[in-house]
Amino acid sequence: MSVAPRIAPAEAPYAPEIQAQFDKLMPPGVAPLALFRVLARDLRLFQRFMGRGLLDKGHLTLRQREIVIDRVTAQCGSEYEWGVHIAFFAAKAGFSEAERAATVHAGPERWCGAEAVLIRIADALVDDATLSDALWAEAEGHFSPAQLVEILSLVGFYHLVAFVVNATGVAREPGAPGFSAGPLSELTFRHRARRAAGGAARVAMGRRARRRYR
């Protein structure tokens, strides 16, 4: 993919409704993120997208939320969104440098207890679009039904964000970190290979279903 953005972000002055939303989203004196400005090219899309955000106080701690978001965006190759969340939330979540890198470069074994389960849930949903009975049972031992629904929703929403960012070529924000914090591990390459194989299997399943209902 080319380096230049495929869709240029909107520039100021913005529509009053969009400017009002930017004022709520961004700290004073901080320019709107490039992703937000890409979405701001269409008022309806911008309002719908921002209305489905999951960064308010929910059923998960901020640290749990960011583990899920960072892992999903990393596994989807969304360096932009991963870097934004590391820049804005990693310190608040109490991530060490090793933990920041582990969201990209390490497997669940780098994490403990409920946090390892969060990593496994994110990986399984990105790979297979579902959870095994065994993983679901393990997750129930750590999280309430409301928390589980929020985790699933986070994975799905940030999958959407990654699609938009990756396909439109949104440029990394100034000062935001990238994946180059550590070498890609063998586990990461195996994970990507499994994801590609799983995607091919889902495409074949979809083709069989379409033939069945013709």
Mean of residue pLDDT? 86
Label the structural class: mainly alpha
The strand count comes to: 0
The CATH class of the largest domain is Mainly Alpha
Order of helices and strands: HHHHHHHHHH
* Low-pLDDT windows of residues: 181-190
Distance between the termini: 36 Å
In angstroms, what is the radius of gyration? Answer: 18 Å
Largest sheet: none
What share of the residues does DSSP label as strand, in percent?
A: under 5%
CATH homologous superfamily identity of the largest domain: AhpD-like
Question: Domains counted in the coordinates: how many?
Answer: 2
Instruction: Name the shape in a single word.
Output: globular
CATH topology of the largest domain: AhpD-like
Q: Tell me roughly what share of residues is in helical segments.
A: 55-70%
CATH-level-2 architecture of the largest domain:
Up-down Bundle
Individual helix count:
10
Structure description:
With about 210 residues, the chain is an all-alpha fold. It has two domains: about 15-50, no CATH class; about 60-210, AhpD-like, CATH 1.20.1290. It is built from ten helices and no strands. The chain has helices spanning about 15-25, 35-40, 45-50, 60-75, 80-95, 95-105, 115-130, 135-140, 145-170, 185-210. Helix 4 (about 60-75) runs antiparallel to helix 5 (about 80-95) and helix 4 packs across helix 9 (about 145-170). The longest helix has 27 residues, at about 185-210. It is globular. Mean pLDDT is about 85; it is low at about 180-190.
